[in-house]
């Protein structure tokens, strides 16, 4: 079974600075997807960024980028120019490419942004 | 660690059928459970929050009579999609929180992929 680990329960960053949230996973599959979700106090789960395992190029969405290391099974999220609105819980998630397989979420990292 | 079991993982059924999805906390008592729905390549939309022994709180735009949520015990919450139609086909995932308080950790089930023919 797949597992997802986020070793940092809490992180903080100064406004306008850069922060990296770590995520590692364990799988025996070669094709899969990785996600970072942001959860504000509203409890909605907002998709931040998505990476297909077959793509070598790291995904980027504006200030958010990932460092995907397939061999090391690492998928870290970098937030540049941090803003107060970035403060939230961040969940790393894995989904198999096999039909019928569902999500595996990490425990989450709570990010605080300091003014 | 805390484990949340969601069952079934996949459902394929005919239009008009009602489908029940169970969310169980296996090794802890969950005072609060959340139900999410995902649309392809999009965020997980919070549908409702259920607290043990009380009525679920639905998010705006979610039909209460369509998506029945019951949280009868501290380890079980169920979501019933009544008279399901193809547009209800989606991925549904639950999560459970041990104690009240926004800073308490949330543990997710594996999700249920619902396909209505």
Give me the secondary-structure topology.
The complex is a heterodimer of chains A (115) and B (117).
Chain A: E1 3-5, E2 10-14, E3 19-21, E4 24-26, E5 32-39, E6 46-52, E7 60-61, E8 64-69, E9 74-79, E10 88-96, E11 103-105, E12 109-114
Parallel strand pairs in A: 2-12
Antiparallel strand pairs in A: 1-4, 3-9, 5-6, 5-10, 7-8, 8-9, 10-11, 10-12
Chain B: E1 4-7, E2 10-13, E3 19-25, E4 32-38, E5 44-51, E6 57-58, E7 67-73, E8 76-81, E9 90-97, E10 106-108, E11 112-116
Parallel strand pairs in B: 2-11
Antiparallel strand pairs in B: 1-3, 3-8, 4-5, 4-9, 5-6, 7-8, 9-10, 9-11
Structural class of chain B: mainly beta
Radius of gyration of chain A: 14 Å
Cα(first) to Cα(last) distance of chain A is 41 Å
> Could you tell me the strand content of chain B as a percent range?
over 45%
Helix content of chain B: under 10%
Structural class of chain A: mainly beta
This entry's quaternary arrangement is heterodimer
Strand content of chain A: over 45%
The number of E-state strands of chain A comes to: 12
Care to describe what's here?
The complex is a heterodimer of chains A (115) and B (117). Chain A is an all-beta fold and 115 residues long. Chain A has no helices and 12 strands. Chain A has strands spanning 3-5, 10-14, 19-21, 24-26, 32-39, 46-52, 60-61, 64-69, 74-79, 88-96, 103-105, 109-114. In chain A, the strands form 3 sheets. In chain A, strands 2, 5, 6, 10, 11 and 12 form a 6-stranded mixed beta sheet that branches. A 4-stranded antiparallel beta sheet of chain A has the order 3-9-8-7, with no helix packed on it. In chain A, strands 1-4 form a two-stranded antiparallel ribbon. The model of chain A has no long low-confidence stretch (mean pLDDT 92). Chain B is mainly beta and 117 residues long. Chain B contains no helices and 11 strands. In chain B, strands 2, 4, 5, 6, 9, 10 and 11 form a 7-stranded mixed beta sheet that branches. In chain B, a hairpin with a 5-residue loop joins strand 5 and strand 6. The model of chain B has no long low-confidence stretch (mean pLDDT 89).
């Amino acid at each position: 079974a797949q597992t997802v680990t986020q070793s940092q329960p809490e992180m903080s960053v100064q406004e306008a600075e850069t922060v990296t949230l770590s995520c590692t996973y364990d799988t025996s599959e070669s094709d899969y997807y990785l996600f970072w979700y942001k959860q504000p106090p509203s409890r909605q789960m907002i998709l931040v960024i998505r990476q297909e395992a077959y793509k070598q190029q790291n995904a980027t969405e504006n200030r958010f980028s990932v460092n995907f290391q397939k061999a090391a099974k690492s998928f870290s999220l970098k937030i540049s120019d941090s803003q107060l609105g970035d403060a939230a819980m961040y969940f790393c998630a894995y989904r198999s490419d096999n039909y019928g397989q569902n999500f595996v979420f990490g425990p989450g990292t709570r990010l605080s942004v300091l003014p | 660690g805390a484990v949340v079991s969601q069952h079934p993982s996949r459902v394929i059924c005919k239009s008009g059928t009602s489908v029940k999805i169970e969310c169980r906390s296996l090794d802890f008592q969950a005072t609060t459970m959340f139900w999410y729905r995902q649309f392809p390549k999009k965020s997980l939309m919070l549908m409702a929050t259920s607290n043990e022994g009380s009525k679920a709180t639905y998010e705006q735009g979610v039909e209460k009579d369509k998506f029945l949520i019951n949280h009868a015990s501290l380890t079980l919450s169920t979501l019933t999609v009544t008279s399901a139609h193809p547009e209800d086909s989606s991925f549904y995932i639950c999560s459970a929180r041990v104690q009240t308080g926004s800073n308490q950790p949330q543990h997710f089930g594996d999700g249920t992929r619902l396909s209505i023919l």
